[in-house]
Amino acid sequence: MFWADKVAKELAKSGKPQLVDDAKTPSGRVHVGALRGVVIHDLIYKALKETGATVKYTFIIDDMDPMDDLPTYLSKDKYKKYMGVPLKDIPSPQGGDSYAKHYAKEFIHVFNKLGAKPEILWNSELYSSGKLDKQIKLALDNAEKIQEIYEKISGSKRPRDFIPFQPICEQCGKIGTTVATSWNGEYVNYECLENKVDWAKGCGYKGKISPFIGKGKLSWRVEWPAKWAALGVTIEGEGKDHASRGGSRDTANAIAKEIFGYEPPYDIPYEHFLLSGRKMSSSKGIGVSAREISEILPAEVLRFLMVRPWPMQHIDFNPELEHTIPKLFDDFDIARKTKDPDLKRIWNLSSVERKTEDYFVLRFGDLVNLVQMPNMDLESESESRKGAALTKKDKEELKERVIYAKIYLEAFAPENIKFTVNKTLPDKVRMLTDKQKALLLKVIDLMQKGSDPEAFQNEVYQAGRNIGLSSAETFKAIYIALLGKESGPKAAWLILSLDKKFVKERFKEAGK
Ligand SMILES: [Zn+2]
């Protein structure tokens, strides 16, 4: 049984309403790895829904977090002064919205496209609406106990007066630089320290503030369980870094139980999603954003990539390796047509808009070759391979695949699978042996006959054999004469896709 179905079945037994939750800090363009968490939570949500359980999926945008790193694609002059300021209070690079809204919306757009449509909650609104007030008070009243929990679980020592709350400085507006020094049940006294962190400078202001309705935030390790308790979260996982023993998940679980009296949500730790490759990792200094990868693969195929592995299985995706993308499409098509119930379930959960699996489409690798051939009628080629007329759905799929085959060729395909037909006689024809030249002249004769590529391919091969050429030597002669390189797509298809007169003249010239 698919892992999410197992989890859902187990959780649904309680008969209680379920709340799946995930969150992300919009500190800039969101990295592709963050999509994995969104999809994993979406799988549990959908599996639970199918059991008939009452279930909701929320996604919190952590817009109260400070800017603690300046993305390389932003102007230093414009943004350096905002280091330490809550992301919700920083202007967007495009004007209008806040910085947090700008990058969060970009990320939301991508995961919506992948079929994940959680209810979006803005952390700043959770605070300003007073939704977290009860937990803020509990945390402040129990600051000492929280400190003990930290020490017990993570082994880290905190200063004696540690209070798990960070006010927004009333003078400079920063939140990353403040320290709460005392709590009297009504107000928090705080200081904005010049050197609290090395990425932002505080202004030195000392003040007192009510910690409620949006004047600051709980420290992250306390905020996480506070949100569980305030919203009633029953399922939330995290990347494996947070899931290590004594890590933030363990602390959050203990704080949930001991401070907020709340049973921690069901946990799903998950492995990283790594995107490797030279072009990908050098992209603008941040690696690849979720938006970028959503532009190189259709939504279902990208979702399939994340749905197929189990959460603790590592994904290392390198689109620049020769077979990565064509194989991903092949695997997707195999899952689409399979009778294996587990694989079928993976395909169903990858399918974004409950598409029918009943359509014909050429293999991606074949399409990559075919789109490079001049004058190729892809619809009639598909039709002859299908052996029947194309349906409307077949045509739509073909159209979409062609778009992604072209993107692949432009962005990632290794040189050996790219080709163009040389307009003039390639220099490389000097490499041709007399036998190869004889073959090219023979192919001109063979072209007079029918135009079935399968039969034609075989005739060319036989002609080579009769002359005393190996199969490799035979087809190499054709590639050199047409493409100026030693390899290429299936020769018969290539020849038949070209203008007959052009090929005949080229072979005559090369065969001299
Ligand atoms: Zn300040």
From TrEMBL:
GO CC term (a single one): cytoplasm
Protein EC: 6.1.1.6
Catalysed reaction equations from the record: tRNA(Lys) + L-lysine + ATP = L-lysyl-tRNA(Lys) + AMP + diphosphate
Main location: cytoplasm
Keywords: Aminoacyl-tRNA synthetase, ATP-binding, Cytoplasm, Ligase, Nucleotide-binding, Protein biosynthesis
Subcellular location: Cytoplasm
NCBIfam families documented for this protein: lysS_arch (TIGR00467)
PANTHER family referenced in this protein's UniProt entry, alphabetically: LYSINE--TRNA LIGASE (PTHR37940:SF1)
Protein name (Swiss-Prot/TrEMBL): Lysine--tRNA ligase
Taxonomic path: Bacteria, Candidatus Woykeibacteriota
